[in-house]
Automatic annotation (TrEMBL):
Keywords: Signal. Residues 1-23 form the signal peptide. It comes from the Bacteria. This is Oxidoreductase. The keyword Signal applies. It comes from Mesobaculum littorinae.
Length: 174
């Protein structure tokens, strides 16, 4: 009986603390906001959304790879955060994401594109192209890029259509 008398207030206190603690786990952007993630996520920093500036994305252990694309000439270098890592950082649990560009073009990317073998290459949210930030005119500031040359499966019309540039919003779909 003594345990239940004290257990309830302790559990209630822990529940109240965990909500704000999760919100504080993701810093608030100090620079220009480049990406807003909403939907089925548990870690936020702006209401129900997670908002990122370039420095916040760069702090998520970025990767760089070289690949050719159908939109550029020759081999290109891209640096960004793996989509899987970004979504994992936000506690996302969904079957797909809806990725939307500045001009409201939207495409759905299924979870199979980022889930699975953690050593397998997959799409990144690129913020550098050939070591430089991308302008809006240059397909930036963010571009979902796949390592097209690493796997023939990445060289298909379906994957090319998921390679959305001028990305500014992601919604994690249940």
């Amino acid at each position: 009986m003594l345990l239940s008398r004290f257990a309830r207030p302790v559990l209630l206190s822990l529940a109240l603390i965990s909500g704000p603690a999760l919100a504080q786990d993701l810093p608030t952007p100090e620079g220009e906001a480049l990406l807003t993630v909403t939907g089925a996520i548990t870690v936020t920093n702006d209401g129900d959304a997670a908002v990122f500036d370039r420095e916040m994305l760069a702090a998520l252990d970025p990767v760089t790879f070289e690949t050719t694309t159908i939109w550029t000439d020759g081999t290109q270098s891209f640096t960004g955060v793996p989509l899987a890592q970004l979504l994992d950082r936000l506690g996302a649990e969904g079957s797909a994401v809806s990725a939307t560009a500045v001009n409201d073009y939207a495409i759905e990317i299924p979870a199979e594109d980022w889930e699975g073998d953690p050593d397998a290459e997959g799409p990144i949210v690129a913020y550098l192209h050939n070591d430089a930030p991308m302008s809006l005119r240059g397909k930036g500031p963010l571009w979902i890029v796949y390592p097209y040359d690493s796997d023939p499966a990445f060289r298909s019309e379906v994957i090319y259509s998921r390679s959305i540039w001028q990305l500014d919003r992601i919604e994690v779909l249940p």
